[in-house]
Amino acid sequence: MNVELLVWIVVAVLIVVVALWPVLRRNRRRGSAISEVEARALIENLENALDGSGVDPRARRKAERNLLLAGAAMSGTGRGRADRAGRWAKAGLRALGG
C-alpha cells in the first residue's frame, strides 16, 4: 500500500510540474521585457544611425531589414510586441556597429 501511494504522489507531482512549466517559463522571461517607450527609442536610434553617411552597404541592408522587422513587430498585437521590436532594433544597431 505504501509503494502504491508513493507512486501516485510522484505521478501527481509530475503532472503538476508539467502543467505549470509554461507558466513558470513565461514569468521568468518577462523580467527582461523591453517597454514600449524603450522600443520606440531604439527604433529611433536605429533610424538616426541609418541616416548617417559612410555606412557599409552590406551593414545598411541588414540594419534596414531589422528596422522593417522592428516596425512590423511594433505595429502587431500581443504582449511581447514591444520586446520583439526592441530586439530587432538592437540587432540593427549591432549590424551597424553601434
Q: What does this protein look like?
A:
- This protein is an all-alpha fold and 98 residues long.
- The chain has two domains: 31 residues; 61 residues.
- The chain is built from four helices and no strands.
- Helix 2 runs antiparallel to helix 3, helix 2 packs parallel to helix 4 and helix 3 runs antiparallel to helix 4.
- The radius of gyration is 22 Å and the shape is rod-shaped.
- It starts with a helix and ends with a helix.
- The relative contact order is 0.14.
- The mean pLDDT is 86.
Q: How do the helices and strands line up, and which of them pair or pack?
A:
Layout: H1 2-30, H2 36-51, H3 57-75, H4 81-95
Average pLDDT for all residues: 86
SSE pattern, N- to C-terminal: HHHH
Strand content: under 5%
Beta-strand segment tally: 0
The biggest sheet, with number of strands, parallel, antiparallel or mixed sense and barrel status, is: none
Q: Report the end-to-end length measured between terminal Cα atoms.
A: 66 Å
Uncertain parts? none
Radius of gyration: 22 Å
Give the class from helix and strand content and strand pairing: mainly alpha
Shape: rod-shaped
Q: Helical element count?
A: 4
How helical, in percent, are the residues? over 70%
- Whole-number tally of structural domains: 2
